[in-house]
């Protein structure tokens, strides 16, 4: 009974996280400005990291945690680089 | 030894990643932590002094409570159907000048959903934040100054 | 899902609730990205996923793995620590970049009301 609840909860959570990633992608496509897209990309990274954690719980493998750690690190570096570019780069669309 | 706090944090992170306390990992972690702390010392960052540890713990707990509450508030704003709310920028004159105190204040304000640190004018020492649900500017100024700036001043200055 | 049967019933319920809470906060945060109307409002939304969303998910992983392996599994906590340290930095930089671009393009005095 309680294990059935856990199985359903993990699947529901993964669906929610997929929807969250879809929202981020919608914002990334719609824009309208570059900063909106970078913000959406950052949210996408975080949601992907959470999705990896939930996959880790579902499969019982700690490997996914390491993958999540790498996504968190790269996402941070990527967003900082994009923001720096927006601060310095002459990109007026 | 320069920057003991930083070296300790690095060593702890290393041990957590390695998940073992074998002498080899411990030694390697110690070498890396001390090396990086030494390198950090070369950057000539001014040393941070924490004067009031119990107050810092209390501030931390308060911040965690505030983060939980404003999470729920922002979730309510997002979920409400076309709710009427005004958001805007608020200018707050500060008395806090310590760089570490300001850094801590920036992290507190930004990691609380609903408020974000925008700009700090270091000459006039005026902080600009953006608030999602702005009802009354003076309440926000008062909240930031009393809840966060006052304890941070006592901790770092 | 055989390995999850190794959890005692209370832990199974606890992990399930934590996972749902974490995903729920992350989802509401990203929903805010779509629903809020301008950039300075939207920038508040993803903080939900990176504070409470991450906290609940990390807590669920720690409980789940620690009980399954019979010893504390702590590296997951590093993700939480790391995200709490980096999220403010990225958001602040992004808002500054946005403010700079508004000032350059519009030529009018920010902040807009």
Structure description:
The complex is a heterotrimer of chains A (93), B (157) and C (113). Chain A is mainly α. Chain A has one domain. Chain A is built from 3 helices and no strands. The model of chain A has no long low-confidence stretch (mean pLDDT 85). Chain B starts with a helix and ends with a helix. Chain B is built from 5 helices and 3 strands, in the order H-H-H-E-H-E-E-H. Chain B is α+β, with helices and mostly antiparallel strands. Chain B has a 3-stranded antiparallel β-sheet, with helices on one face. The model of chain B has no long low-confidence stretch (mean pLDDT 81). By secondary structure, chain C is mainly alpha-helical. Chain C has one domain. Chain C has 4 helices and no strands. The longest helix of chain C has 32 residues. Chain A: Keywords: Cell membrane, Membrane, Transmembrane, Transmembrane helix, Transport. Chain A: Belongs to the CPA3 antiporters (TC 2.A.63) subunit F family. Chain A: It is a multi-pass membrane protein. Chain A: This is K+/H+ antiporter subunit F. Chain A: It is found in: Cell membrane. Chain C: InterPro entries: PhaG_MnhG_YufB.
């Amino acid at each position: 009974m309680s294990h059935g609840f856990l199985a359903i909860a993990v699947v529901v959570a993964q669906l929610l996280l997929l929807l969250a990633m879809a929202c981020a992608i919608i914002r990334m496509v719609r824009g309208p400005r570059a900063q909106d897209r970078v913000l959406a990309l950052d949210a996408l990274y975080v949601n992907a990291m959470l999705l990896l954690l939930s996959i880790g719980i579902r499969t019982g493998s700690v490997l996914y945690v390491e993958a999540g750690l790498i996504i968190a690190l790269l996402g941070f570096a990527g967003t900082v680089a994009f923001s720096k570019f927006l601060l310095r780069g002459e990109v007026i669309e | 030894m320069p920057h003991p706090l930083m070296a300790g944090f690095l060593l702890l992170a290393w041990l957590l990643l390695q998940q073992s306390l074998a002498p080899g990992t411990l030694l390697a972690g110690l070498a890396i932590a001390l090396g990086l702390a030494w390198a950090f010392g070369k950057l000539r960052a001014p040393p941070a002094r924490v004067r009031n540890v119990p107050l810092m713990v209390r501030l931390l707990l308060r911040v965690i409570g505030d983060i939980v509450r404003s999470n729920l508030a922002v979730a309510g704003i997002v979920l409400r159907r076309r709710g009427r709310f005004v958001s805007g920028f608020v200018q707050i004159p500060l008395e806090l000048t310590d760089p570490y105190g300001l850094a801590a204040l920036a992290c507190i304000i930004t990691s609380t959903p609903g408020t974000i640190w925008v700009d700090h004018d270091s000459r006039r020492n005026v902080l600009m934040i953006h608030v999602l649900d702005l009802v009354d500017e003076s309440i926000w100024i008062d909240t930031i100054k009393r809840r966060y700036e006052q304890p941070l001043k006592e901790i770092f200055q | 899902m055989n390995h999850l049967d190794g959890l005692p019933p209370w832990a199974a319920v606890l992990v399930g609730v934590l996972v749902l809470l974490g995903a729920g906060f992350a989802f509401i945060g990203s929903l805010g990205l779509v629903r809020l109307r301008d950039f300075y409002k939207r920038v508040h939304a993803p903080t939900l996923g990176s504070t409470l969303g991450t906290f609940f998910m990390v807590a669920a992983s720690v409980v789940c793995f620690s009980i399954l392996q019979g010893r504390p599994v702590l590296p997951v906590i590093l993700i939480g620590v790391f995200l709490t340290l980096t999220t403010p930095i990225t958001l602040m930089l992004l808002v500054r970049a946005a403010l700079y671009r508004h000032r350059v393009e519009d030529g009018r005095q920010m902040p807009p009301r």
